[in-house]
Amino acid sequence: MLRITDLQVYYGGIHALKGISLEVPENKIVTLVGANGAGKSTTLRTICNIVPTAAGKIYFQGKDITNKPTVEITKMGITLIPEGRRIFANLSVHENLLIGAYARSDKPGILADMEKIFARFPRLKEREKQIAGTLSGGEQQMLAIGRAIMSRPRLLMMDEPSLGLAPLLVKEVFNIIRDINDEGMTILLIEQNATAALKIADYGYVMETGNIRLEGPGKELAEKEEVKLAYLGQG
Hints:
alpha/beta; 39% helix
């Protein structure tokens, strides 16, 4: 579904991505793990053209989307849930979900999708009229996921979905990710919690200072000694 070849990105004078290549097959979960500053978030932001590509190519469903306008990329079916959730804190839960469907005009479909989200996240239904900024961290993450689903993405990219959440909620978020994938959603996931990410991922890439250092099936990567020592706090 997504293919990146020899991607190079600069932030000012910093060479942030140094020729990475990766693939995200349809209906799979692919994760990028690595230390802070490895280039994980930059990769997602470059796919959406929030950060421009200096060299290399990005293909989505066989089409070259390198440096296409962000709005166009979104309309093609790529949605990013950014780190820190970035919900509209002054708007209600209902209004946040509607904003997720801003590029759609099928009113019955929008209403049907909203009901599906409320069925998946009953707490959002209970708080439908509540101002989003007053929700708990876990509820805000559910809202961010729900808002993204409202755009009917083909590829959902998630940047640190478990950040700042209590362990019980982290488990819930990963269950949600697995459920969404089971329903046919393709997911590209960035996660500091490398153990949890590799456990649910079909395939993983380990990034280090703008390079891909290791790659392989998620469960196999989780068992590699160097990955355990460097990223999983085990050895």
